[in-house]
Write a structure and sequence with these properties.
It is a single chain. The radius of gyration is 23 Å and the shape is elongated. The relative contact order is 0.14. A hairpin with an 8-residue loop joins strand 10 and strand 11. The chain folds into two domains: 116 residues, Calycin beta-barrel core domain (Lipocalin); 114 residues, Lipocalin (Beta Barrel), CATH 2.40.128. The strands form two sheets. A ten-stranded antiparallel β-sheet has the order 14-13-12-1-20-19-18-17-16-15, with no helix packed on it. Strands 4-3-2-11-10-9-8-7-6-5 form a ten-stranded antiparallel β-sheet, with no helix packed on it. The longest helix is centred in the first third of the chain and has 18 residues. The chain has one helix and 20 strands. The protein is mainly beta.
Length: 258
């Protein structure tokens, strides 16, 4: 009888431990340390003759006239406009439903080999994400037409990521500045991103080991990138290494626990 009771108690304890896993070490609020992070960017600008150009920012080619007017873009129902201000400055804007989403002020160096992009992203809550890029020409094009590779990225705005529990056995990755959330479970399934700027992106997650996760992001079932999320042994630093399809260099984002 005593042995039977002991078996029941052991089984109950095991079931309870399975139902209530230890708190994830990834939970908490994390702040990006831009001095330790690298976010290399690539973009392609191709002249089509006259004032027509094709732009590829990584989401596919968009061909428009560089005349400052809003023209249909190739991503998420947006419009794209490029306004020349002199021979060395272009103002690039993207809108959706008439609302300004982002503005880039592009300035060419005197020798035409570098391009500075003063990038501003305007959120629907009134906040602004500010980032400055310096690109280097990687081919023999002329003017703004070139393949451009960033050599310096400076984030001027604070960037936070919050990780919370999701439905008991999953995790939510919340990016307040981007108004975007990834609610994920460890079941191998793709879950759509949520929020005003989520776009047509879905994500899945798997646990590599106790301090490492891997997230796969897709657009319309096509892999866009994979992210390796690694936690330091002291649980104070979180490093996200993002491998974007078609790019040689990964983005490396280093977050410190707040």
């Amino acid at each position: 009888m005593f042995r039977r009771i002991l078996e029941i108690l052991l089984a109950t304890c095991f079931a309870t431990s399975m139902a209530w896993p230890a708190e994830s070490p990834f939970l908490g609020m994390w702040k990006l340390d831009s001095s330790k992070s690298r976010m290399p960017d690539e973009m392609k600008v191709e002249s089509k003759g006259g004032n027509k150009y094709t732009f590829d920012f990584g989401g596919g080619a968009e061909t428009i006239a560089v005349d400052g007017t809003d023209q249909p873009g190739g991503y998420g129902g947006t419009t794209l406009s490029v306004k020349p201000e002199g021979t060395d400055t272009w103002i690039v804007e993207r809108k959706k439903d008439g609302r300004l989403m982002l503005r880039g002020t592009w300035k060419l160096s005197k020798d035409g080999n570098t391009l500075s992009d003063y990038f501003r992203e305007f959120e629907s809550d009134g906040s602004t994400l500010s980032m400055d890029y310096v690109y280097q020409r990687t081919d023999g094009g002329s003017g703004f037409a070139a393949d451009w590779q960033s050599i310096k990225e400076t984030l001027n705005s604070p960037f936070l990521m919050e990780v919370k529990e999701f439905q008991g056995d999953g995790l939510s990755f919340i990016f307040p500045a981007e108004q975007r959330t990834k609610n994920l479970k460890f079941d191998g399934k793709d879950y759509p991103n949520e929020g005003a700027n989520a776009g047509p992106v879905s994500s899945s997650v798997r646990q590599v080991d106790e301090r490492t996760l891997e997230i796969t992001d897709k657009v319309k079932a096509k892999v866009m990138d994979t992210e390796e999320i690694s936690l330091s042994p002291d649980r104070k630093t979180l490093t996200v290494t993002m491998h974007i399809v078609g790019r040689d260099k990964p983005n490396v984002l280093v977050f410190e626990r707040k």
